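Usage

Read records sequentially. Each one opens with the input sequence:
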Amino acid sequence: MAIGAARDDATGDVARSAAVVCGRRRRRGATIVQTALVLNVCLMFLLGLFDFSRVVMLRQLVTNAAREGCRYAVVNTSTATTAQVQSYVTSYLCGQPINSLAINVYEVNPTTGANIGTWTNAGLSTSIAVQITGTINTMTPTFSLLPSSLPIQATCIMASEAN
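and closes with the structure output:
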């Protein structure tokens, strides 16, 4: 008991302790509601961050696949076929879910980037391009504020080694 505090009777202590317990219960209920609200916002942000990171990873993977496919094509100009280059690029993509996947291999004008014919007839230092196009679906479009489907494209141009 504090100095100078007056104690009327035992019922006053009981009433005060009941009020303290009741206040704690109210605060516990408010804490649970606040936690539920904050946790939802944090989880939505986290899922959006994961989805955005996945999109960045897939874009990088497609860019690397185009580069690797183009390198394969310029080194094997006289021996490889378009189907082999497409298979090489597809294997580099490691089975990632890319919808409407199209892989084009062609001889290209290095100045304009225009398709000028088949790549298998390319001579020494002639430019060859590998272009990959497709769409990727986001996993949580609502949480990440991304559209449900994103176009993805990568093109790589290299000079043929015409072996």
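Summary fields computed downstream for this record:
- The chain has a mean pLDDT of 84.
- The chain has three helices and four strands.
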